[in-house]
Amino acid sequence: MADLSADFVGIKSPNPFWLASAPPTDKEYNVRRAFEAGWGGVVWKTLGEAGPPVVNVNGPRYGAIWGADRRLLGLNNIELITDRPLEVNLREIKAVKRDYPDRALVVSLMVPCEEEAWKRILPLVEETGADGVELNFGCPHGMSERGMGSAVGQVPEYIEMVTRWVKQNTRMPCIVKLTPNITDVRRPAEAAHRGGADAVSLINTINSITSVDLDLFAPEPTIDGKGAHGGYCGPAVKPIALNMVAEIARNPETANLPISGIGGVTTWRDAAEFMALGAGNVQVCTAAMTYGFKIVQEMITGLGQWMDEKGHDSIDAIVGRAVPNCSDWQNLNLNYITKARISQEDCIKCGRCYAACEDTSHQAISMSEDRTFEVIDEECVACNLCVNVCPVEGCITMEELAPGATDLRTGKVVEATPADWTTHPNNPARVAAE
Amino acid sequence: MDATATPGIEAGRLSPEDYAKNFSDLHPAYDAHEAQVAADRCYFCHDAPCITACPTDIDIPLFIRQIATGAELAAADTILSQNILGGMCARVCPTETLCEEACVREAAEGKPVEIGRLQRHATDTLMATGRHPFTRAAATGKTVAVVGAGPAGLACAHRLAMHGHDVTLYDARPKGGGLNEYGIASYKTVDGFAQAELDWLLEIGGITLKTGTALGSDLTLDGLLGEHDAVFLGMGLGGVNALRAEGEGKAGVEDAVDFIARLRQADDLATVPVGKRVVVIGGGMTAVDAAVQAKLLGAQDVAMVYRRGRDAMGASRFEQDLAASKGVRIVFNAQPVKVEGNGAATGVVFERTASGPDGLVATGETFVIEADQVLKAIGQRLDGTPDGLTLAGNKIAVDGPGRTSHDRVWAGGDCAAGGEDLTVTAVAEGRDAAEDIHAKLMGKG
Ligand SMILES: Cc1cc2nc3c(=O)[nH]c(=O)nc-3n(C[C@H](O)[C@H](O)[C@H](O)COP(=O)(O)OP(=O)(O)OC[C@H]3O[C@@H](n4cnc5c(N)ncnc54)[C@H](O)[C@@H]3O)c2cc1C
Ligand SMILES: Cc1cc2nc3c(=O)[nH]c(=O)nc-3n(C[C@H](O)[C@H](O)[C@H](O)COP(=O)(O)O)c2cc1C
Ligand code: SF4
């Protein structure tokens, strides 16, 4: 099988699957069992300052969104950083690292925005033998009200400042964990880079209210009649996370900054997608919280099988491979023309494509008395909506028109040379085509 | 000795647990989660084929989506506004030849959305609230006589009452419900559902149910027409076709519908006698129900004998498989010649048949099946037609929404020509006739 071992900013792990900083990594018992199950590494649940630990609510912490058969699609939480004493966590980290030297063990940290606070905690972490630190600038609830977490992550100057303090006060690699609750994720990533970060990890959770109790008229999860916004994660956030990872990977200023991809990773395929967009490894939280530690076995074997099939012999062979294909809209080829094609053999005659195209798109599908559905090439703009609503995979496909063929919608012959918006005659700001 | 081996026609062949187990729900109710999962499989098809396949045109994708979004009561309203006996139909419809056969997922993967069970989930949820969801329009002052309180009569009466007419509903039997109460297999409608649904339906108000009152002996059509503005006939098929085989009069030989009615009316199944060896003659739904229930009552051997081949059988493949799975032996291509026995039946002589160019021919080859009980299920027919009405074949001729040859008399359900003899068809015909009567009475027809 392909070699799945990963070297992320000098931190080695037998596979690229790490558990993200969260309940699965909150204590020695969990982490030992996670390592036994096969996880390549963990980021320990975020530690705070010495002294009395934070307290969590005693009512429900989670809200959820479900799909078919109650499959969990999105999870929301209002949990804080670890509520166990600092000394206990440090002692356990040391014991686990000693017993699992081949696994990655990174410690997540969140202390107040004062250099002294960071100077106090960093040596304590170093002393455990941990492989690195992750700065939690992402937690969007509770801790942010106290000036930490995403309150720092939303101000690039603070990110740069704190990262610099950390780099000056420890030899350990420093990963900066970013919040998605900003408008342009490139700015905080650039700030981390300027501060000397070895890598960024993203995303942390997204501000959210998952649902409202319509009897109490209160957001859920509801604590004694009230609810606070939480952080959203799980499969539902993956598209947002993928885009943010790609934005950073494509940005020339951060192009060489390693990325740890997080957000909705549930299967080996999700992981491969993150890595193709530039992530050197992935971190997982919700999938483990939903299915238990064992899922890593699916991830390891699935990724290995795919890499073998495709002839990718190492993780390095896949990381960033899709980045050059991430384009701006204006550079997409407008001469690439496709038409929807419905396979009558596979069609089960549900008519969903018809309803979608007829009611909401381009009236490009016809329906006969006997429920035969056909694409009207004169009208089809190739939007792909019919493909997406069709319940039968592969029944509707998009067929490329070869150069020289006529697009019946526009009456124009398909050209072989690409042309994009930058040179299009309708673009008032066009540049002359060479 | 094992009570199933006792010769003759005997009651109490099984233990109380076995009776309870054998006659439990054929398609048990979903729990809430199962209903969600099942509802989620619906594709919400455009102009859905299942709607067309339902004789009452229920908007199936809409009610399933309502279930999927947790609005079961709204789902029930969608169903009941088209089919007031949606609860019974959910239990008894041969969905495998109706809506579920048309489901695109049947075409796609041979596993349709379970429309019947979803329908039951919605209607049961509503009925558990004790609420009747329909109210009556302002009184019209018109009165209509409905003869027969089976599915056709009930659907007609309910729709008329809703439109503000006063309805008198006559039935010859001691209880209303028609075959819902006396005919449908008991494992399809457990726990007295037929009467519960009847009571719930009558809550609309404006319907006076008079049981034990028969057209022909207690009432005449002319008399009804004198007292009411219109008459709807929904008498079903009270008569039974004769076997025309020698020895039909021997003890132990009876009509399957009578056997079933006795079983349906029994408070305790242990009191219902059944043969050790039972032969059921016929190939329709009634034959299957009689055979299966005889087996479930503890008969040791049950054979169902049909004169033609499998494909010609009235019972659907699902029903045939059900019978086979309960241990009923189905014999094709044989017709009865003679019931043997000295006073009481001991067996039936059958003759092999073959289908020739001029229909079925007897081959002369005979065989005997031993039996102490013989149930005849070779079809029901109309029993006594009111004078003056035109017939089509053996049924009352109707035109469009149940119009008979008399301009103030409508008919629907099994007694009227056209349509399959099914509960759901009876409901559709009763409902449509009511709309037509309403239009006529209000001067819009
Ligand atoms: C054994 C059996 C099993 C069946 N199983 C199914 C099944 O699983 N699914 C399905 O869809 N269909 C089934 N059917 C068919 C279904 O029951 C009928 O199609 C349906 O009941 C017809 O409804 P109806 O209202 O026309 O007649 P009925 O249900 O027969 O009701 C007629 C009513 O009229 C009354 N009546 C008759 N004569 C008079 C009179 N002279 N005066 C006053 N009242 C009178 C009767 O007492 C009865 O109450 C089955 C039928 C039988 C016999
Ligand atoms: C209950 C819960 C607690 C979390 N606590 C932390 C935390 O203490 N520190 C942190 O950096 N991220 C925390 N996270 C965020 C996760 O590490 C991760 O970034 C996020 O859940 C997205 O990944 P996922 O989609 O795989 O769950 C928490 C998430 C959950 C669900
Ligand atoms: S691709 Fe879009 S426009 Fe073309 S047929 Fe499908 S839905 Fe209609």
From TrEMBL, chain A:
GO terms for cellular component: cytoplasm. Belongs to the dihydropyrimidine dehydrogenase family. Residues 338-370, 371-401 form the 4Fe-4S ferredoxin-type domain. GO terms for molecular function: dihydropyrimidine dehydrogenase (NAD+) activity; iron-sulfur cluster binding; metal ion binding. Gene3D superfamilies: 3.30.70.20, Aldolase class I (3.20.20.70). Pfam families: DHO_dh, Fer4_21. Heterotetramer of 2 PreA and 2 PreT subunits. InterPro entries: 4Fe4S_Fe-S-bd (IPR017896), 4Fe4S_Fe_S_CS (IPR017900), Aldolase_TIM (IPR013785), Dihydroorotate_DH_cat (IPR005720). It catalyses: 5,6-dihydrothymine + NAD(+) = thymine + NADH + H(+); 5,6-dihydrouracil + NAD(+) = uracil + NADH + H(+). PROSITE patterns: 4FE4S_FER_1, 4FE4S_FER_2. Involved in pyrimidine base degradation. Catalyzes physiologically the reduction of uracil to 5,6-dihydrouracil (DHU) by using NADH as a specific cosubstrate. It also catalyzes the reverse reaction and the reduction of thymine to 5,6-dihydrothymine (DHT). The lineage of its organism: Bacteria, Pseudomonadati, Pseudomonadota, Alphaproteobacteria, Rhodobacterales. It is an enzyme of class 1 (oxidoreductase). This is dihydrouracil dehydrogenase (NAD(+)). Keywords: Iron, Iron-sulfur, Metal-binding, Oxidoreductase. Its EC number is 1.3.1.1.
Automatic annotation (TrEMBL), chain B:
InterPro entries: DPD_II (IPR028261), FAD/NAD-bd_sf (IPR036188), FAD/NAD-binding_dom (IPR023753), Helical_ferredxn (IPR009051). It holds the Pfam family Fer4_20. Residues 143-430 form the FAD/NAD(P)-binding domain. Residues 20-129 form the Dihydroprymidine dehydrogenase domain. GO terms for molecular function: iron-sulfur cluster binding; oxidoreductase activity. This is FAD-dependent oxidoreductase. It comes from Oceanomicrobium pacificus.
